Recover the amino acids of this structure.
């Protein structure tokens, strides 16, 4: 299948993340990554799929600076990085607004500035009216929206997502996929998104990267040709088209072959 670069409203002007021949060996001798080449340009949303234990989350930790590659080069040219984990990681005693303000608070922002940033982020993720709710009063989807809003207060150039919607039901997951695409074209960040769902990867992304089993390496890369605009980030009905199914099938085959 021939592929084409997805037309999006953001303009690719520079590479924010550049992994060249990256390897990761842990102290116990486990080789998680070997020879990984991966780039994320400004204006790209790149999803990574691969079998469990192939080092997908390790890629994110290296990109965020939480881990350092054992070999190769991992260059990150983004001063502001957002990170959304598999769990919402909210403080249970803090309200939605107070949780969203947390990173700005830790960054030493004034009360007025962090309140303004939090209110804007809460509005962007559709949680206006829930500012005073505690996490226990929220649905799983709303907790993930709160986590996303918290990172949005950083105005990230590069957003890292570690399977943030994996524990949600299908309808909530699809709704949050739509919201994330809207934020992507509006906020113009670059994204690196880890998921086990091939269909989610294809729907969200401008590019899908397939990794092999451990030690993880990149075996295929697919450009996603479905258009995005600010008015229509991506038509949700694209999921039901033959073209979408064909690309999902190709990515799935590459995933199976890379796991052999």
């Amino acid at each position: 299948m021939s592929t084409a670069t997805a037309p999006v409203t953001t303009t690719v002007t520079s590479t924010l993340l550049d992994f060249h021949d990256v390897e990761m060996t842990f102290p116990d001798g486990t080789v998680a990554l070997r020879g990984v080449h991966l780039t994320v340009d400004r204006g790209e949303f790149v999803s990574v799929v691969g079998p469990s234990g192939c080092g997908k989350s390790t890629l994110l930790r290296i990109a965020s600076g939480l881990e350092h590659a054992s070999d190769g080069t991992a260059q990150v040219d983004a001063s502001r990085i957002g990170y959304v984990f598999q769990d919402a990681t909210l403080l249970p005693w803090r309200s939605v607004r107070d949780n969203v303000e947390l990173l700005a608070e830790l960054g030493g922002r004034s009360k007025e500035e962090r309140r303004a940033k939090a209110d804007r982020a809460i509005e962007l993720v559709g949680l206006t009216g829930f500012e005073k709710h505690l996490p226990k009063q929220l649905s799983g989807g709303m907790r993930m929206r709160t986590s996303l809003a918290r990172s949005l207060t950083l105005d990230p150039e590069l957003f890292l997502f570690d399977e943030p919607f994996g524990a949600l039901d299908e309808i909530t997951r699809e709704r949050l996929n739509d919201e994330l695409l809207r934020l992507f074209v509006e906020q113009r960040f670059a994204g690196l998104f880890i998921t086990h769902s091939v269909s989610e990867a294809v729907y969200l992304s401008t590019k899908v990267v397939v990794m092999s089993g451990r030690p993880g390496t990149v075996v295929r890369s697919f450009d996603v040709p479905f258009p995005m605009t600010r008015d229509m980030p991506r038509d949700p009905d694209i999921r039901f088209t033959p073209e979408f199914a064909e690309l999902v099938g190709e990515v799935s085959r590459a995933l199976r072959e890379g796991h052999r």
Observations:
- The CA atoms of residues 180 and 204 lie 8 Å apart.
- The two ends are 22 Å apart (CA to CA).
